[in-house]
Amino acid sequence: MIKNTKVLALKYRPQTFDDLIGQEVVVETILNSIKADKIPNAYLFTGIRGVGKTTIARIIAKSLNCVNGIENKCKDKCINCDSITNSNHIDVLEIDAASKTSVDDVRELLELSRYAPTSAKYKIFIIDEVHMLSKQAFNALLKTLEEPPEYLKFIFATTEIKKIPITVVSRCQRFDLSRIKSSELFEFIKNIKNKENGNATDEALKLIVKISEGSVRDALSLLDRALVSLDHNKELDLNAAQKIFGYFDKSQLINLFDLILRGDEEDVVSVYRKIYDQGVEPKVFLNDFLELIYYFKNINSLTSEGTNFLLNDEDFSKIKEISKKIDNETLILFWQFGIRSLEELEIVSNQHLAIEMFLIRLIHLSSFKPKNKNELEGGRVHISDEKNKNLEKNFDTNLDVINQIKNVSQKKKKNPEPKNEIKLFDKVPINSFNDLINICSIKKEMKLKYELEKNVNLVSFETQRIEISFNEDLDKDFVKDLSTKLFEWTNQRWIISFSKTKGAISIKEKEKNFNFDNIKKVKDSDLFKTILSKIPDAELNDVKTKKDNDD
């Protein structure tokens, strides 16, 4: 216990392995390795916030450097243990990786590692939130991490193990710290409450355990807040704790669920509005309602202790009793409606009204589903009350009408009108590369034609097989598009392969060379020379070949 602080999370921070709770396996493994002098080069602790990662790192540092030896377990304080506890030991350096992330910070650390410890047996580097280091910083650590000097030890702590490179994880002895069990955490904060002369009921402490979700630090912070919220002469009960933490009583939800099953719409809306007036957000309410549906569905496979103190014994028994009145199919439908309503909350402007409509829908859904399958026989509902015989007769008549409509619709489905079948394209013969370009023009596939003429160099062309080379401007989807169209036009699969052999020049390149040759021939002709003699500034840009049938 640290006496110079008023914050409970720091005041009751474990100082020895015996003070730790919930991590017995990890503690035993570490102690055995230290006693056997098989200390790893680096420890890696991972887990959620507040389960003891940094605390264990400091205790290891004290155990390795304790003057009185490991068997003493730091119970008799020495100079090294006191210095490490006060974070001022020259050979134990604690670094926050969130603020020192760069490779330069790691290089500075490695520079310090070259020097032997001054007053302790080991020089220890504790790096908290190690996943925040950059990739280059991790790479700089690798060599020293694998083969450090005998006096150097690393201790890493992280909440996000997946962000650490596997090359670093493989060089460490990894320990996964589990959440603290509800019963252990309850006894722990109850003991601290007594030490602090706090006045709180067990139900209030159980609520703190529930909210903390297995984190000791969160539980102590909540306890600290709860104890200072009321006067010393007042007891912190469950209702007061719920108001302090903004947490509403789950028994209200159970009563609400029971009213939904009874179909009492007015009371359902009234109870929800009371919960809403307590300051509970619609989204929080809906998530808690879904959690309650889970307990109704799986109550037979759970124990009151295994519910993480969400439910007390009375609520647990009540859920077990109500769950007998509702089948699993209805619960699953409730769950699906709840998930869908969560999505709807992001759309609507008034979430409060959306929750009311959600509850009303559940009322009608639960009343619609029969509790007993024997109530439905032969498509008719049997009404036992003699006073309702006329209602039954009318209902039967309606069923007959519905069945007639149903029969007519079924006949229509059985004898559908013949639809005009969509005719496939007639097979188009494609026997050459030119045929392929021509069919692209006919089918108005201009993009495909452009790629074939400009960016494709033909190596070979066979039936159902084309081998090409291409330039860097070819579209990335060219092969997929061409294969699809060829199958559509020929009703056959074509293989389009790329070749390292440079094929013939593209059609556009041929046309360009042909025009260049024609221009050169015309420029060398007597006719062009005669024109130049009369018009010195004349330029020849293009030559068009005259067709045979032209005059």
Summarize this, please?
With 551 residues, this protein is of the alpha/beta class. Helix content is 51%, strand content 9%. It has helices spanning 8-11, 24-35, 53-65, 79-85, 103-112, 135-146, 166-169, 182-195, 202-212, 216-229, 238-245, 250-262, 265-277, 282-298, 313-323, 328-345, 351-368, 389-414, 433-442, 446-454, 478-490, 507-523, 526-534; strands at 42-46, 92-96, 123-128, 152-158, 173-176, 376-377, 380-381, 456-462, 465-470, 495-498.
Descriptors for this entry?
single chain; 551 residues; Rossmann fold; Zinc Finger, Delta Prime, domain 3
Largest sheet: 5 strands, parallel
Per DSSP, what share of the residues sits in E-state strands of 2 or more residues? 5-15%
The CA-CA distance between the termini, in Å, is 113 Å
The value of Rg in angstroms is 40 Å
| Spatial ordering of strands, largest sheet | 2-3-4-1-5
Within CATH, the superfamily of the largest domain carries the name: P-loop containing nucleotide triphosphate hydrolases
Number of strands: 10
Assigned CATH architecture of the largest domain: 3-Layer(aba) Sandwich
Number of domains: 4
**CATH topology group of the largest domain:** Rossmann fold
**Global structural class:** alpha/beta
Assembly type: single chain
CATH class of the largest domain: Alpha Beta
